[in-house]
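Entry: CbtB-domain containing protein
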Amino acid sequence: MTTQTNTASLSLSSILPLAFAAVLGFAIITITGHVQAQGLHDAAHDVRHATGFPCH
């Protein structure tokens, strides 16, 4: 009879994507919190035109 023990070990390869996602999310929230509403509208409007999505 053998017993296997699974331990949760966090390696750099599993922490790095999590840290990157957290920093990216924090940056997006911080930037959008400080930009003017018209600036957000213009950025979204330009993206819609660039992707060919009808917005008018």
